[in-house]
């Protein structure tokens, strides 16, 4: 019996042909296809994907026409098969994909509006998450996701002592609050620092390093997050860290994660490099692919 071909979805957001983001996307498409993956690209600008979440995302009657609540209505519409076709088409791609790569230029410390709209509209309640199924118990816990993006700023500007602040803090809402919240196992991000201000040979080296990483991408260990089991998972308990876990963490010099810092020092590179549990250190790609700080 033939094995089912595995699928990678690239959600791509850049307006221009010939951009560095396009080159990064194309390298991923070529390399992953060479490995036998079926690669689907959602080119959001080319698709003219609608960014705003509105009533038009629901086909037919609303559950509560007097007070429109987008989350409730789209959850109901998803259950009834009454979401707009553009949303349902993207949800079918997500269901098929083993890995989703979000490829974009960093805008205002986040994703472009059109990609944010994709997240708002496609990752509907019920389809992508519920109060019972979130984080490491989430709906997409058997899938992987990662951010791959370019910056306008140079790397030093995003260090803890740089003018923009720690890139790990910047990435926490996207990687924990969106991807991990939906259950995805989150791979370390691929960051292309300031390609617009680099010589051509540096951009070529960046693409070469990306190709090398892609060869073993799906075998990589993922970023670590605080598991749901560490929290009191009810409104009565406030979804707060369990007292016994707090006690266990007292002697640690660092917080648990970038977001769960417990008033301590942030664990270094918590959102940019995987943690090596064998020696409790932070590991990254060597040979220039990821630099140790």
UniProtKB/TrEMBL annotation:
Pfam families: Flavodoxin_2. Its EC number is 1.10.5.1. Its cofactor is Zn(2+); FAD. It is found in: Cytoplasm. Keywords: Cytoplasm, FAD, Flavoprotein, Metal-binding, Oxidoreductase, Phosphoprotein, Zinc. Its main location: cytoplasm. It catalyses: 1-(beta-D-ribofuranosyl)-1,4-dihydronicotinamide + a quinone + H(+) = beta-nicotinamide D-riboside + a quinol. GO terms for molecular function: dihydronicotinamide riboside quinone reductase activity; metal ion binding; NAD(P)H dehydrogenase (quinone) activity. Residues 6-214 form the Flavodoxin-like fold domain. The keyword Nucleotide-binding does not apply. The keyword Flavoprotein applies. GO terms for cellular component: cytosol. Belongs to the NAD(P)H dehydrogenase (quinone) family. PANTHER family: NAD P H OXIDOREDUCTASE-RELATED, NAD(P)H DEHYDROGENASE [QUINONE] 1 ISOFORM 1. Homodimer. The enzyme apparently serves as a quinone reductase in connection with conjugation reactions of hydroquinones involved in detoxification pathways as well as in biosynthetic processes such as the vitamin K-dependent gamma-carboxylation of glutamate residues in prothrombin synthesis. This is Ribosyldihydronicotinamide dehydrogenase [quinone]. It comes from Hippocampus comes. The lineage of its organism: Eukaryota, Metazoa, Chordata, Craniata, Vertebrata.
